[in-house]
Amino acid sequence: MKQKKEYFHAIKLVEENCTGCTKCVRVCPTEALRVRNGKVQLDSTRCVDCGKCVQACPFDAIQTYADDLNIIDKFKYKVAVISTSFAGQFSESIGYANAKKALLHMGFDEVAEESMVTELMSSIIRDYIRKNSQIRPIISSNCPAIVRLIQVRFNSLLPNILRIEAPMSVLALYYRNKIARQKNISEEDIGVFLIVPCISQVTAVHQPEGAYKNVHDGAISISEVYKEVISNIKEVQKDETPIETYPKGLSWAISGMEAEEVNDGTLRTLAVSGIHNVIKILHKIEDQQLETYDFVVLHSCTNGCVGGVLNVENPFVATSRIRNYLRTAEHKNFADDYFYEMYQNNMFDVLPLESRSIMSLDSNIKDALEKMKKIREITKILPGLDCSACGSPTCRALAEDIVVGKAELDDCMVRLKKMRKQKK
């Protein structure tokens, strides 16, 4: 018998905080949550780490997980790779350069910005789109929650996913190789850490999909780094050491900008944010209604990476700050022969992705068909209100839970109340 795969998730359930309100159950896009015996439960195979449940829970019963900042002390040479959304978290009185410099004061030896390589990645993606003209549309792999959503709910679209590492992972691989080569430091002594805005990127670090190897050593939340920056900012502002930033590439933090940067005027691109909006678009792609598009960028978080649950600032304020950087800051190009050499040697490619089977009712086809029949029969006798009072997200989901032995028909409060009235 095939052993069930264990999945890492960057959320933790705190049972004592849970009131059984089912708010999280109603917003989960993959029906990964249930409330049983008044407490929330997670189906690990279905969860895509989009963070919607974290945002919905008013009682802090679903909490985020990320690596502690102290993890960097395990390594001799430490590199931070910061997300494009990082810049939008800090007020103008602090400034992006000082926020970046603060990471050096925290103990990092080098700080790399995702924005350094977004322009180069746009060129690489255009090249990929033209070389794979038989696939339309190509779907960006930059959002790990979207990659997992496709694995869970849209298996037929797995070939459409861009098979190139996301910019932060590309930078992690580049710096690990470059430092080992130039500074003669063992790769085991180099720690590369992503400073991330969302839990899906934490999950991607701890359980990468399609990568040849894990190129990161941890993922630290922007919110944790933010606290350290604020507490040390006066000391940092006294440090007059000049520091470079790459503001133009910050645009990728905002929904729509990756698609815009990739489009050189010859491609048709589309950008969508918010996971429930994304699901509608994925259905259209699956139904072959969007084959005229060359490249589609999907973000699970509304407004893009600025909307991640591990950020601090309001996403609209963060967007405004980033747009201001784009208008006023000096543009710098990142160019490195070794980076191009790595690309030419296919070091940024990833392996094909596997689907995650979430609705395998039975290994025996005959029994599985019989269970499907029972699900349809039970669904018909349920009220169809999808109220979640039973602890399942929909009436159909409750029917599935009943058939697989995880719930009972009497869990439906509406039906039970109706039957009691009829008996009187």
Quickly describe the structure.
Helix 13 crosses helix 14 (395-403).
Notable features of this structure?
424 residues; Alpha-Beta Plaits; 3-methyladenine DNA Glycosylase II, Chain A, domain 3; four-stranded parallel β-sheet
Descriptive notes:
- The protein has 3 domains: 1-65, Alpha-Beta Plaits, CATH 3.30.70.20; 69-344, no CATH class; 362-424, 3-methyladenine DNA Glycosylase II, Chain A, domain 3 (Orthogonal Bundle).
- Helix 3 (96-105) crosses helix 8 (222-238) and helix 13 crosses helix 14.
- The protein has 424 residues and is α/β, with parallel strands linked by helices.
- The protein starts with 10 loop residues before the first strand and ends with a helix.
- It has 15 helices and 11 strands.
- The strands form 4 sheets. It has a 4-stranded parallel β-sheet, with helices on both faces.
- List how many beta strands DSSP finds: 11
Strand order of the largest sheet: 6-5-8-9
Q: How does the helix and strand content classify structurally?
A: alpha/beta
Largest sheet: 4 strands, parallel
- The separation of the N and C termini measures 51 Å
Helix-strand blueprint:
Layout: E1 11-13, H1 23-27, E2 33-36, E3 39-42, H2 52-56, E4 62-64, E5 77-82, H3 96-105, E6 110-113, H4 118-131, E7 138-139, H5 144-153, H6 167-182, E8 190-196, H7 199-206, E9 218-221, H8 222-238, H9 257-262, E10 269-273, H10 275-286, E11 295-299, H11 315-328, H12 337-344, H13 365-381, H14 395-403, H15 413-423
Helix pairs in contact: 3-8, 13-14
